[in-house]
Specification:
It is built from 14 helices and no strands. By secondary structure, the chain is mainly alpha-helical. The longest helix is centred in the first third of the chain and has 58 residues.
């Protein structure tokens, strides 16, 4: 997808009109050509380019970025920004898959071995104890009990986890932002989600203001776009700003954006450089989110490896202790 957007942006920056650019792209690879044909038909019917991308099932944020470009008259820049967003998202997804693939394979193997030990091997040991008339020690009896609990609970826990993941994905794709925000209501997750909201809000505000729109119109578009999942908050901001209140004062009362944004925009209102300040805030929070994402990836692999080590150690203990105890009793 990002290559199609980049190619279209390059053609527009070269001075080619949108219809000719889409016509040129229609002769490319099959997938890009089908994209271009659908978009060209939409544009010739008098519809916006953003509506054509929404029909092609592009991510909603891409449609919003392109709609911003149409509003500001800088469509080529919007296409470049959208292509960059898709590229960053693809690289992060590929890195996440690369980091998680090895631990996930080991996790599945460990769960399978643990389930096999708990449901097959330990019951055989238990029957062996009974047939030989060997008394069970407290530790061995506890291990047999844990094995029964694991044999009963592990498959159900995995099913519940799969169902929970499916529900989360469905809610995310249905854009029920308030329900998705529930897990982010405390601690580090809340701080991460606040940074993400700040990044998205400042990106959109800077894009609109640098495109030549006035502040009130920009805030109105942000409310219509449900920017960062804060549609109701931005509607209240639009109302208060239209009454003559300053943007920094309204954001402090109406939103949960970081104090750094409030202070910076308050200074920008005094200096008259609101577009530049919004752009600098956008760059700062983009770097901050990227740094925290990198830190998460760096911690993910060793933490997952440590958890797998604990699972393997427990499975080994579950298997070896009854056997060692049986040998000791028989000797």
């Amino acid at each position: 997808m990002e290559y199609f957007l980049s190619d279209l942006s390059d053609l527009l920056q070269a001075g080619i009109d949108i219809d000719a650019a889409l016509c040129a792209l229609s002769s490319r690879a099959i997938k890009r050509g089908s994209f271009a044909n659908v978009l060209r038909e939409r544009v010739r019917q008098g519809q916006s380019l953003a509506s054509g991308f929404s029909v092609l099932s592009f991510p909603d944020i891409i449609v919003r970025i392109l709609r911003l470009g149409e509003w500001t008259g800088d469509l080529s820049h919007a296409l470049t920004k959208a292509a960059h967003y898709l590229e960053i998202k693809r690289l992060r997804r590929e890195r996440l898959v690369r980091v998680l693939s090895y631990p996930m394979v080991l996790t599945i193997f460990c769960f399978a071995v643990t389930q096999l030990l708990a449901s097959v091997v330990l019951p055989e040991f238990y029957h062996m104890y009974e047939s030989l008339g060997v008394p069970l020690s407290k530790s061995t009896e506890l291990l047999f009990y844990l094995g029964r609990v694991i044999a009963w609970g592990l498959p159900r826990m995995l099913i519940a986890l799969i169902v929970l993941c499916i529900v989360f994905v469905v809610l995310y794709r249905s854009k029920r932002a308030k329900m998705i925000q529930l897990p982010f209501s405390h601690g580090p997750l809340m701080r991460w989600f606040t940074l993400l909201q700040a990044k998205q809000s400042m990106e959109v505000l800077a894009f609109l203001l640098q495109g030549g729109l006035d502040l009130l119109t920009s805030l109105t578009y942000m409310a219509e776009m449900n920017s960062a999942g804060l549609a109701s908050e931005w509607s209240l901001v639009v109302h208060d700003v239209s009454l003559g209140m300053s943007l920094s004062e309204v954001l402090k009362d109406r939103t949960a954006l970081p104090q750094l944004i409030i202070d910076t925009l308050e200074m920008a209102e005094k200096t008259g450089d609101l577009p530049g300040s919004a752009h600098r805030l956008s760059s700062y929070y983009t770097r901050t989110v990227d740094q925290k994402t990198e830190r998460f990836f760096h911690l993910l692999e060793p933490v997952s490896t440590a958890i797998l080590g604990l699972i393997i150690g427990f499975a080994t203990l579950l298997f070896m202790l009854p056997m060692m105890n049986l040998i000791r009793q028989l000797s």
